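Question (not urgent): is this output format expected?
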Amino acid sequence: MEIIKGAGKWAQPAAGAANDWVEQLKVPDLSVGTYCIPAGGVDDQSPHTEDEIYVVTAGRARIVAASSEAEVGPGAVIFVPAGEEHRFVDISEDLALLVVFGPAYGSRA
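Got this back:
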């Protein structure tokens, strides 16, 4: 067992950075991290080669994907299949996301 400290907690991105991604756990079959985008910020991610689950822990935004779009806030759980274009837009409050990749992030690259 392992307690993953800091997972899902808001962190201000470094000066000049559009957002902040920190991977907190990585094993072959999954990885866990935190993705933060400040209010009014830009989500510049590209599609991933792994399936992904987001859990919104703080903030409000809209997620736009190839298959649909939705308003999200604390408690929302979002599944994005591998390869699907997606991004968070209209970020009205600092957004913190707990992110789970299966298999581990970058393992299919």
